[in-house]
Amino acid sequence: MQHSGLVQTVQVPQPCVMVIFGASGDLTKRMLIPSLYELYSAGLLPENFSVIGFARKEIPTAEFRDSMRLAIGQHCQEDFLKSGKVNNFLDNIEYFTGKYDDQESFHALGKRLMEIDAEKDTGGNRLFYMSVPYEAVAGIADNLGKCRLNKPVSDDSWTRVIFEKPFGNDLESAVSLNRQITRYFREEQVFRIDHYLGKETVQNILVTRFANGIFEPLWNRNYIDHVEITSSESIGIENRAGYYDHTGALRDMVQNHLLQLLSYIAMEPPAVFDAKALRDESLKVIQSLRPYEPSEVRSMVIRGQYTSSVIKGEVLPGYRQEEGVPPDSRTETFVALKTYIDNWRWGGVPFYIRTGKRMPTRVTEIVIHFKSTPYRLFTDVDDIAQSYNQLVIRIQPDEGILIKFAMKVPGTELKVKNVDMDFHYSDLGDVDLPSAYEKLLLDCMLGNSTLFIRNDQVVASWEFIQPVLDAWKNDSSIPLQGYPAGTWGPECADDLIAGKDFKWRYPCRNLEGEGEYCEL
Ligand SMILES: NC(=O)c1ccc[n+]([C@@H]2O[C@H](COP(=O)([O-])OP(=O)(O)OC[C@H]3O[C@@H](n4cnc5c(N)ncnc54)[C@H](OP(=O)(O)O)[C@@H]3O)[C@@H](O)[C@H]2O)c1
Fold first, then answer.
1. Residue 41 belongs to domain with CATH number
2. What's the rounded mean pLDDT across residues 359-381?
3. 399 CB under 6 A from ligand 1?
């Protein structure tokens, strides 16, 4: 049985060849090659290791290596660049021009893999990485299968395949994609990446909860009033209108990353720390989310789209003015929702999720709001919401944990003030946090699927999301709220938490955009 990398000491994987489909693209140069280089530099890749970059564009290997050298320079941490191992690393990379829908290309790839096995003694171990847009994925999986590249070369070797999100565009397409994948690959060969799960601080949620005695007794409906999960970005859609306008914030962020975060916060302690037990518990949480009735979607899920605004005299474009976005687009760039987990631990505790683009800052954090004391003995705390303890888990940036609690202000008067006990990951010294992709690539090579998403988790999360997509599609009277770029989203998102002493936590007080809140 494979145990999680969370508690393992570092292990070096077996020799292998990694094939990146879509190697001419953005993810390869921004994330995959820089992460592989950092692993190599840290001595965490096997001695016999090779990368084949596969894509349609014709690029000579020398030119591909040059562009990867540039990418490493731009995206790797400085310490790794100093190690002077870039050229040796690049010697292990080659480029292969092929077509995703052409079996000949896959036969030729198979032949090259056999040659590398012979040249470099890579033992027949293969890792295929689908770094291509969603529409190309099923065809590649199909051709790998038809050319028998899906099967391990021998009883001692392994063949694994990594899929990038999106895992479908809705429930039906997710089920269909999985059917196509599992025609040729067994579930244990399939590694679905949700890079949030590779982040140190996300893994630390589990350690905070299950390695400390002080939190778990309070971690339930008796002591927790509500939970808030915010993931905001200050940037817009950059040049990704083609992708984003068909996706929107609900599919892009909530269906995957934020439901996974929620499951880590809410899951029961797994019986053992392995891939099956952990993912079983995560699945149970997602399956326990209360399904939305069509009539509830309007009030429980707020959607928004950023509009033009002015910050410090600078005009920011609205979503519909971004290049490539249709002027009448109804794609949401903001979602806030309220949900319940119908189980014994969480019955009646609202969970709030909020995510958006063009908000005042980039932050991902989880706020656990504890219930107040039964009686307010000290009445001089002005802000009632402040009399509740909060545990803030900051996922990014400035990773860490913050506890807010009340203290006496020094002096002769009995005055109470809320203070922060604030732990920053950076305080642990000059330990570089490995990037999520480093962690996940290494885990996959080691065969550890703990931090990857299983198919049943994908399906369960789409089952939760689908009624919202259906309601938005079928009921055009559900409003799309315009919010000025640079603000915390539609004002009516506050109403989700209304009726309580609370509002959303605002992680920063940056200057906000000035513009119009309106219904679009
Ligand atoms: N970039 C990111 O930060 C990021 C983050 C999270 C997830 N992802 C996911 O990772 C995957 C790769 O992302 P990416 O940003 O690298 O994508 P990309 O740059 O758009 O595409 C990667 C490569 O795929 C090929 N390609 C493009 N459109 C295609 C099509 N319609 N059919 C077949 N091949 C096509 C192109 O190579 P050739 O034309 O040369 O074959 C392209 O260079 C996607 O599934 C994306 O959703 C990316």
1. 3.40.50.720
2. 86
3. no
CB proximity list for 267: less than 8 A, separation 6 or greater: 278, 281, 282, 284, 285
267 and 219: one domain?
A: yes
Instruction: With a cut of 60, say whether residue 316 has pLDDT above it.
Output: yes
Give the predicted TM-score (pTM) of the model: 0.92
Same domain for 122 and 207?
Answer: no
Please give the mean pLDDT across all residues of the chain: 91
Other Cβ atoms closer than 10 A to 513? 23
Distance CA 399, CA 205 (A): 11
Token pair 């009646």 is found at 348
Q: Do 317 and 463 belong to one domain?
A: yes
Q: Quick check: is 177 in a domain?
A: no
Structure confidence at residue 80 as a pLDDT band (50, 70, 90): low
Q: Are residues 229 and 310 in the same domain?
A: yes
Number of separate domains in the chain = 2
* Co-location of 497 and 371 in the same domain: yes
Q: Quote the ligand 1 centre to 296 CA distance (angstroms).
A: 36
Q: Output the pLDDT for position 380.
A: 64
Residue nearest to atom 33 of ligand 1 (CA): 136
Distance CA 135, CA 407 (A): 56
Which of 3, 195, 226, 257 is the catalytic position? Answer: 257
Residues 203 and 267 in one domain: yes
Q: Print the domain residue range for 270.
A: 197-434+455-519
* Confidence at residue 5, expressed as pLDDT on a 0 to 100 scale: 40
Q: What is the pLDDT of residue 283?
A: 98
Regarding the beta carbon of 100 and ligand 1, being less than 6 Å apart is answered yes
Looking at per-residue pLDDT, the higher value among 22 and 198 belongs to: 22
Question: What DSSP line would sit under 67-110, residue for residue?
Answer: HHHHHHHHHS-HHHHHT--HHHHHTTEEEEE--TT-HHHHHHHH
**Predicted confidence (pLDDT) at residue 382 exceeds the cutoff of 70:** no
Looking at the structure, tell me whether residues 239 and 156 fall in a common domain.
no
Q: What pLDDT, on the 0 to 100 scale, is given for residue 384?
A: 53
Q: Is residue 422 part of a domain?
A: yes
User: Distance, CA 154 to ligand 1 centroid (Å)?
Assistant: 31
State the CATH number of the domain containing residue 376: 3.30.360.10
434: which 2 tokens?
């490995």
182 belongs to a structural domain:
no
Task: From 141, 164, 187, give the residue that closes a domain.
Answer: 164
- Ligand 1 pocket: which of 27, 28, 29 to mutate (most atoms within 8 A of CB): 27
pLDDT surpassing 50 at residue 150: yes
136 lines ligand 1 (CB under 6 A): yes
User: Looking at 4-13, 38-47, 192-201, 439-448, which range is the least confident one?
Assistant: 4-13
Task: Tokens 């397409």: give the residue.
Answer: 173
Q: For residue 257, indicate whether it is catalytic.
A: yes
Give residue 45 CA to ligand 1 midpoint distance, Å.
Answer: 25
pLDDT value of position 189? 96
pLDDT of 44 higher than 90:
yes
pLDDT for res 3: 38
Best residue among 56, 131, 162, 177 to mutate for probing ligand 1's pocket (most ligand atoms within 8 Å of CB) is: 131
Instruction: Tell how far the Cα of 274 is from the centroid of ligand 1, in angstroms.
Output: 32
Residue nearest to atom 46 of ligand 1 (CA): 133
- Count CB neighbours of 19 within 10 A: 23
Contact 444 CB / ligand 1 (< 6 Å)? no
For residue 226, is it within any domain? Answer: yes
Count Cα atoms within 13 angstroms, Cβ side, for 94.
Answer: 11
- Does residue 236 sit in the same domain as residue 328? yes
How far, in Å, from the CA of 164 to the mean position of ligand 1?
10
